[in-house]
Every structure is written in structure tokens, then in C-alpha cells.
Design a protein that fits this description.
The chain is an alpha+beta fold. The chain is 24% helix and 30% strand. β12 and β13 form a beta hairpin. The structure holds flavin-adenine dinucleotide and FE2/S2 (inorganic) cluster (FES).
Amino acid sequence: MTSTSLWMTVEVAPDADVLDGAQECDVAVIGSGIAGISTAYELCQHGQSVIVVDRGRICGGMTSRTSAHLAPLCDDLVTEMVTIRGHEATKLFCESQAAAVDRIEQIQKREKIDCDFRRLDGYLFQGREMPSDTIDQEMDAVRQIGVPVHRLVGVPLKGADDRHALRYPRQATFHPLKYLAGVAKACIEKGVIFYRDSPVEEVTEDDALVTVKAARGIIRAKHAVVATNSSISDRFAIHTKTAPYRTYVITFEIKRGALPDALYWDTEDPYHYVRLQPGAANTDYVLVGGEDHKSGEADDANARFSRLEVWARSMISDLGKETHRWSGQVLDTIDYAGFVGRDPGGKNSYVAMGDSGQGLTHGVAGAMLNTSLVLGKDHPWTEIYEPGRVTLKAAKNFLTENVTALKNFAEYVAPGEIKSLDQLKPGKGAIFRRGLEKLAAFRDETGTLHLRSASCTHVGCHLHWNSFETCWDCPCHGSMFDVDGQPINAPAVGPLARVKD
Ligand SMILES: Cc1cc2nc3c(=O)[nH]c(=O)nc-3n(C[C@H](O)[C@H](O)[C@H](O)COP(=O)(O)OP(=O)(O)OC[C@H]3O[C@@H](n4cnc5c(N)ncnc54)[C@H](O)[C@@H]3O)c2cc1C
Ligand code: FES
């Protein structure tokens, strides 16, 4: 089965064109995931003229691969965040995430978007052979920051009557692409222009204007918001404070009512996550995710899907046939909050990146924050998400995550994965050493060889093959390239260098 998410049948802004020629506006938004579209929405409500430009289809990035839990807590546990950022900052962070869920609820109501939005309970439960005191510690931390929570034993999953758990009321979920199709439509009605298939190559600033240069066109704007999931404008400062992780989702049919409609996640590391999505007639879908690993550090997706299926069948009764499987990437940050605000080193450009596994709420909260900053207003969340911040207590996480880059550069002196290009079978990719060069080699089903440099065009890390997604992953900061070397995930902008066959 190839990688296709449950959401991808919905097209967002289907009439978007390619950016061609010169355009002007108040704010250029680069990237059309939830962060970009939400930013465009907030800005146009304030009378700003906005152009949104994307490298590919509108909303074809990580937002189309999400699992869409709207759980406004800390994905890495509130206990962890309090240790690193303290009570006050954690409280403000959780308030901002809750405000994002409220904003989604408000917008879908106001714009009459039929997107299956609903409030429901969220259960954090004790994982297999995990201690129950994690649950107690988390309850204490959550109560101290004033978030409503109930302690219980047993969750409505198979064989989980004795699992210790926390129940969070008023969490939420929705169909992310139906929601964003509605938001994009509301934006278009307010004059926002969407451009697709227009990779942005450069964002530059002078005193008065920001210039956004795409392949065939240019936008001059008073401000730019870079919402490319991982920033293409900041070269390094923020990227060393994030780490890309790949995560996997598998969906099954399930008879309506067989599983209570709620969000579920456990305390294992990596954790499992489960939610329901309404289907047709009497059948719903259940999404089960997890099996995360650092990007590029494993290429065994099928084994991971098998483990997810075994886990799902052991925890959920009456699970029907599998319908979809896909993977995607989240960008963890070293202190658990994203980086949103004025671009370090920029004047009129802003960034929104670092989802920490909760990129939907980050995208919406970030849109509210960046809109205030663009309009020249203070915002109470500025410090929480300040892109240039240094969190001293996160030094251990900083070092752990940056070991990847150090180890990665050492790979340039290692042998290739194949000794000869003749060893490469159709449909396979591998790293090949030719003299001092490391090459990313892929042979397609017709036998044609696709050969590119294996050096990422962001800051030069060594790429790894991803056989499930048929692309090259960069373990350092999350770029991905297709087999012809074109970037398909930021921060890389340029294609992989061509090499002689
Ligand atoms: C499997 C999975 C499960 C998840 N589950 C949850 C969850 O339950 N809850 C939650 O809150 N979050 C979850 N997340 C995270 C969340 O989905 C993402 O963080 C979020 O959708 C990212 O939104 P974004 O707008 O920042 O990025 P994207 O949706 O990736 O959008 C960025 C856009 O920028 C464009 N772009 C990149 N470079 C350029 C360029 N040079 N020029 C022009 N355009 C460019 C891309 O094409 C893309 O469309 C999950 C993620 C995954 C993968
Ligand atoms: S993403 Fe930074 S070096 Fe590849």
C-alpha cells in the first residue's frame, strides 16, 4: 500500500494558479498548510491584502498527513515542559493552545464549514509495562497550571480496565482539509490570492519592502510570513533548536459505536495515538499512530505498520479492514514550544515553525500571534514563542538533538550502501560512493537511473533513502527530496546537484 492519508481526497483552493510576473500586497504568506492559511485568514479579517504562495498544491504538506487531535496540552507532557520552562510559561503556552482550539471552533461556526468539528474527551493512559506514577506526576503538573483533568483507572479500550489514566474534558478534533478548504474559501472571498506550484527561492528585505522571489514571479510586500513548516528564510539559528521525527499512521474501518468517540494516547515512548473519523453509513474510521523515530534513522516502515496493527488489534475491539497508511514528519523543539514571531535578523518578516507534534494548534496560535506583530501590536504570547530565545534548561536536549548532525557529517567518509550501480533493482534507492563523492541513486520501474548528489542543499547533511515514501530524507533538519532531487519539504530550497551518469 502506498502512502495516502485519509484526508487527501479534499482539494483546498482548487482554482489556485501559478505565480507569474510581479505582484504587490500588504503581506506575502509563504506556505499553505494550516499555519499559512490561518495567517492569511486572520490578516484579511483586518483588511490586509494577502498573497499565499506554495511550492506544491495548496495544503499538500504535513497538514495533509496529520492525525488531527486538537489537544491543547504539551505533547511531551506538561511535567516535562514545567521542568524546562517553568509554571508561568507552561500555563501561558497551554492557554495559547486552548485559544487555538477555541479559534478553530469559532471560525468553523462563523464560516459554516462542515468539517466534523466536535468537542470530546481526551485520555492519557498508562502504556504497557509503564509505571503509573507518570500519570500522578502529570496530574499534579496539569492541576498546578489550572487545566481541568480527572484521575481514573481504566479507559474504554480493550483490556485496559486496569490502566491508570487522566481524562481531559473539552478536547476536540475535525477533518483538517475540509476545515482548511472552508477557511481558504473564506479568505478568497475577502480577496486573498493563492498561488500553487510556485517554489519560493528567496526572501529578502530592504528598509521598506520584503521581496519574495519564486521560480516565475516575484511578490513585493510590506511584510512576509514564512510558514513553510521549517523556515526557508532562517538558515541555521532556529534549525539547531529543532529535530525532525517521522511518525506513522494506519487507519481501519470500525462499526459506528464500537469505540467511544474520544482522543486516546499512552505514556509509551514513542507513544501511540488513536482517534475516530466519521465515515459513510454506519462505518467510521479509526486512526492509529505512533512508532516515531528520528528522520532518516530507519527505513523499515512496513515493520512499523505491522507493529501498529498488532497494537491496534490488541487494544480496539471489532477492528475492520485497513483502509490507509501513511507517514509524515513532526519537528520537535528542544523546549517544547514552537518558534513563532519576528524572524531573527529580519525586520518585516516573521516565521512559524517547530510544531512539537501539535502543529495544528501551533499553526492557529501562531497565526494569531504573527497577525498581531504584523499589525504592530503587542501580544501576551510573544515571549513564549520568541524565535531567537535561548532556553538554558534545554541545553541537554539541544546537545542530544545536535549529535545527529555531527554523526551525519561523518557518514561522508563511510562506504556506500551498494558497491556498483548495477546492484540497484527497479524501484530501489541507495547511497553509492564514487571516488570522494556520495551519490543518491534511484532506479525507476523502467530501469532508468536517477543520480544526484547525496548532499542536502540546506547546509550539506548526508541524505538517507526512504523506501516507503520514495524520497530522500535529511536527518538534520527535515528536508526531503524527490528522486529527481527536487525539494518536497523545507527547509531546503534548491534541488540536489546533478552529477554525471
Ligand atoms: C502523522 C502526523 C500526525 C500528526 N498529528 C497531529 C495532531 O494530532 N495534532 C496536531 O496538532 N498536530 C499533529 N501533527 C503535526 C501537524 O499536522 C503539523 O505540524 C502541521 O500540520 C504543520 O502545518 P504547517 O502549516 O506548519 O506545515 P505544512 O502543512 O507542511 O505546510 C507548509 C507548506 O509550505 C510549503 N513550502 C515549503 N517550502 C516552500 C517554498 N520554498 N516555497 C513555497 N512553499 C513552500 C509546502 O509545500 C507546504 O504546503 C501531525 C503530523 C503528522 C505528520
Ligand atoms: S535539512 Fe538542514 S542540512 Fe538538510
